Amino acid sequence: MLAVNALASQTDEDEQEGTMHLFRAIRTKRPGSIYELANITGRKLKNIQDDLRLLERYGLVRIGHGRSSGKRRVRIPQAVFNEIALRIAT
Q1: 62: which of 11, 31, 35, 74 is 20 to 30 A away, CA to CA?
Q2: What is the C-alpha to C-alpha distance for residues 61 and 19, in angstroms, rounded to an integer?
Q3: Interatomic CA distance for residues 10 and 50, integer angstroms
Q4: What is the DSSP letter of 1?
Q5: Distant-in-sequence, close-in-space partners of 80: CB < 8 Å, separation ≥ 6
Q6: What is the DSSP-derived secondary structure letter of residue 59?
Q7: Along the 90 residues of the chain, how does pLDDT read in single tens digits?
């Protein structure tokens, strides 16, 4: 519940939609790097990194490490869950 509450507390509705779209893209497209995820979603790399930090902080995404590309380590976003169920109390 904490993760959903944190995402719901984002002030900008477009920002919420972007974060959930990002999670969906990670789960369905399985990008090989954060850079590839930015290309898939058409969003700026910096914004992707910020959203990934939020998703990782709440346990929805894990950042793994792949083979290095030259001096850089490739960071691979991975979805921790296949689906998220939202239960709203009435």
Answers
A1: 11
A2: 11
A3: 13
A4: -
A5: 59, 60, 61, 62
A6: T
A7: 445 555 555 546 666 677 888 989 999 999 999 999 999 999 999 999 999 998 999 888 999 988 776 777 899 999 998 777 777 877
17, 22, 23, 29: CA torsion to nearest 10 = 140
Which residue type does 89 have? A
Cut 0.90: pTM above it: no
Task: Give the span between the Cα atoms of 70 and 52, in whole angstroms.
Answer: 23
**Residue 78: phi, psi to the nearest 5?**
-135, 135
Query: Contact, 49 vs 61, CB < 8 A?
Result: no
Q: How far apart are CA 19 and CA 17, in angstroms?
A: 5
Cα–chain center distance at 63: 9
Structure tokens at 9: 């507390």
Q: What is the DSSP letter of 33?
A: S
Q: Which two tokens stand for residue 43?
A: 């969003």
